[in-house]
Amino acid sequence: MTPATFTRAGFRRGALTALGLTLGLAPFGLVVGMAADAKGLSLLETLLMSALVFAGTSQLVALQLWSDPAPILAATLACLVINLRLAPMGAALAPALDRLSGLRLWGTLAVLVDNSFALMVAEIRAGRRDAAFLLGASLAMWAVWMVTTLLGHAFGAAVRLPPDHPVFFASVAALMSILVPLWRGWSDVFPWCVAGLLALCAQGLGLGAPWPVLAGALGGAATGAALDRHRNRGRA
Amino acid sequence: MTLRWDVLAAILGMVAATFLCRAGGYAILRVTRPPPFVQAMLQHLPGAIFVAFLAPALAQGGWPAWVAGGSALLVQARFGRMALSILTGVGVLWAIQALQ
């Protein structure tokens, strides 16, 4: 296991690794651009939001609540609730972040997204702890995010895809492909099943985002941790 | 190219809330040493998060979504190319919808 570092080579490798995954992000960026246009946001306002917030689901939900004047409190709360799932992600990246400080640390965290998180976890598990990989992956996503929200805002009104168009399945397909590098073996099966079932139950109870994700993630992780402890006791 | 003050204020509120989420979890971890059970949970968290994301999304899409998602998974496991895997998932769903 190499010590945590922050290198130019790592940054480039992260950006290149993330390129394939940006296909999953692109349709989502178009949708956010179209939604912002439909709510009357100017191109500058739309790009500013995408550049600084850079969290698609929360932007989409905030835009659904949008009104004139802008709903400052509601949009802020929507981001807080929906992006709560990013908090445990940052914590799980500790092995790569612990040696960093200042702008490198908080700047890398400031652009953390689901997909770059997953790629970095796979890196850590492969014994590589170069946090610049995470920054590179996130910024590659960010660049595609900016281009696609711009296109969505500029041309969205002309295209008008129905919301159940297969193109929008790309973000789900991207997460399916992410599961492969996160898979560590058959001991993952039971915690993953618990995570999925809890998320389905929370959704069945009528709970909105982020509760199905948080319930499933925390329940599945707790199941995995309990199984680990049980196994270690059996060995001792 | 307009930038209204109320819109700017809403965007800055969204930015602050999102940064709090992104940095907050790690910031707490940096100042306190979590108990061993929580550390073990963090090891299991990545997979669990994405499964918890996907299960409701696939359930909402019905069997075509499961088939398309399954194909994306298989292509990724076999070839290890994420772009190919995503295109396969979208293509399979597109084909199913076209045939229905």
Q: Which whole number gives the mean pLDDT of chain A?
A: 90
Contiguous uncertain segments of 5+ residues of chain B: none
User: Separation of termini of chain A?
Assistant: 26 Å
- Topology of chain A as a string of helices (H) and strands (E): HHHHHHHHHHHHH
Radius of gyration of chain A: 19 Å
**How many structural domains are formed by the residues of chain B?**
2
How many separate helices of chain A? 13
Main beta-sheet strand count, sense and barrel state of chain B: none
How do the helices and strands follow one another from N- to C-terminus of chain B? Answer: HHH
Which outline of chain A best applies? globular
Structural domain tally of chain A: 2
Helix content of chain A: over 70%
Strand content of chain B: under 5%
List keywords for this structure.
heterodimer, A: 236 residues, mainly alpha, 2 domains, 13 helices, 74% helix, B: 100 residues, 3 helices, transmembrane (chain B), membrane (chain B), transmembrane helix (chain B), AzlD domain-containing protein (chain B), Brnchd-chn_aa_trnsp_AzlD (chain B)
